[in-house]
Amino acid sequence: MKDKKNKRKDTYRAVINTPDAPKAIGPYSQGIELKKLIYFSGQIPIDPATGELAGNDFTTQTRQVLKNIDALLASKGLTAANVVKTTIFITDMSKFAEVNAEYGSYFSFEPPARSCVAVSALPMGALVEIEVIATL
């Protein structure tokens, strides 16, 4: 049953949508705000200006993913300091150091909790995807 209305009055839920980050490429939202947390969908290295993947290496793609995350956070007046948990998906664990170097530059102060998982493939042939949970 597809109930489009939230029937609970005590639950705040809002969809996050900004043109400064890539549009969803499927039936999902860029993020969902729920009370004091925002759950952002995983970001792949799509350049929002072109709709194409940025670069073909882990460093360039991670940098674009973090730019996309930054745009999502900024749409709600947030920064990397508001991120409390991330999950990184990479297609080649031997490239973890490259991803980690970019990630470490972005989350340079009190980084969030994190998981990293190797996957066989990502949408559009991306090499890296990162999802974040942020607090308001």
Q: What are the salient characteristics of this protein?
A:
136 residues, 6-stranded mixed β-sheet, 6 strands, globular, alpha+beta
Quick rundown:
The chain is an alpha+beta fold and 136 residues long.
Terminal-residue CA separation: 31 Å
β-sheet strand percentage? 25-35%
What's the gyration radius in Å? 15 Å
Give the overall average pLDDT: 92
Determine the fraction of residues in helical runs and give it as a percent range: 10-25%
* Poorly predicted ranges: none
How many β strands by DSSP? Answer: 6
Q: State the shape.
A: globular
Which class do the helix and strand fractions yield?
A: alpha+beta
Order of helices and strands: EEEHEHEE
How do the strands of the widest beta sheet line up side by side?
1-2-3-6-4-5
SS field, number of helical segments = 2
Largest sheet: 6 strands, mixed
Explain the layout of strands and helices:
Blueprint: E1 13-16, E2 31-34, E3 37-43, H1 58-75, E4 83-90, H2 96-106, E5 113-118, E6 128-135
Parallel strand pairs: 4-5
Antiparallel strand pairs: 1-2, 2-3, 3-6, 4-6
